[in-house]
Amino acid sequence: MASFVWGAFACAAVSLLFFPIVLGPLAIVLSALAMKRKESHATLAMSLSVAGMVLGFILGAMAASG
Question: Cα–Cα distance between 1 and 53 in angstroms, integer?
Answer without folding.
Answer: 26
